[in-house]
Amino acid sequence: MLDLILRRCALPTGGELVDIAVKDGRIAEVRPALEAQARDEIAVDGRLVTPSFVDSHFHMDSTLSYGLPRVNESGTLLEGIALWGELKPNLTGDAVKERARRLCRWSIARGTLAIRSHVDTSDPSLLAVRALLEVREEMKPWIDLQLVAFPQDGVLRLEGARDSLETALDLGVDVVGGIPHFERTMADGAESVRLLCEIAAERGLRVDMHCDESDDPLSRHVESLIYQTQRLGLHGRVAGSHLTSMHSMDNYYVSKLIPLIAEAGLHAIPNPLINITLQGRHDTYPKRRGMTRVKELMAAGVNVAFGHDCVMDPWYPLGSHDMLEVAHMGLHVGQMTGSAEMLACFDAVTTNGAKALGLDGYGLEPGCRADLVVLQCRNPIEALRLSPTRLYVIRGGRVIARTAPETTELTLGEASETVSFDF
Ligand code: FE2
Q1: The pTM is what?
Q2: Residues acting as catalytic residues
Q3: Looking at the 3D structure of the chain, how many domains does it have?
Q4: How far is the CA of 119 from the centre of ligand 1 (A)?
């Protein structure tokens, strides 16, 4: 006996409607008009079923702290970093956990069941690291949290930062992070990339660095990251997050750089909501957008995954952790309105994210984990257009979130009518 059948599902790749059968937490079969019975059935009736959304870049330790101890009035990256510095001494483990749990609940409700979160390891007590390791274990039945040891104040710039980072990894943090552009010099930035990639190689871990998150056209840390990836044989296990300086780089240099990124199998993780609001702040007009060259990276075969980065924290006052909002912004900032380009933006918050994080069993094929979302729309482009209701969120074959379809009753004359945007 099967556990669950989703009847008449539209898949992100199109084609005819299929039934999806689930057994023991995994997808058992995917085919039209399946003749089988299950303990439970959901009539999807032509709506879109996608593997759950993936947020490839987030900051869970600072999330939902907006206004603590004050708001970022200039809205700049640097005031955000200063504000985070003011907040850090007053953090408590309980408050970090409470906010992280709340954020996870929002994520699950929006159909995101995997998040890679950077966590600041600069504080020698590693209060936030310990709190998020607890939350990672506590939430494991419902959502995959992957933690990145992130030396926010610079692994070389801040004394003792290397020891704290290594202790965080000893405690069980999953991925090695970095912030080379925040080190004192370009040489120190390159040295930090070498050091951190070697730590990752020794421990058999993945790497995800905040890299060249500036408008400086001469920032060159992604080049170092590529070099160390090649040198240490970390191919396919390294991500460059943000890469915003690529927006401003000389086109000739980028024509050399992008093939090198592809060759090293580097994953690129832009954060469209944050890049468009934080970059170009020193410009008058015209103002640069600051997001990295998504279209060109994808054309070269680079895996590009989008991250949310922030929700209501020192750097960003908005958000509800909806990855479709992220894809919508990425599409607009990258001018990706061609139909294949729009589908690529949907992939950037689903399959590409799973690749960047190295998630096992992600997808819609038999054998994959039954982590699925039923949306109130018919295809990925409608999903981007509407950011529709997540009707069902399914984890390991079990419905863990359910939302009623959105409809509006209009009364324009004598009679009332019901309007919904999906059909
Ligand atoms: Fe970030």
Answers
A1: 0.97
A2: 213
A3: 2
A4: 10
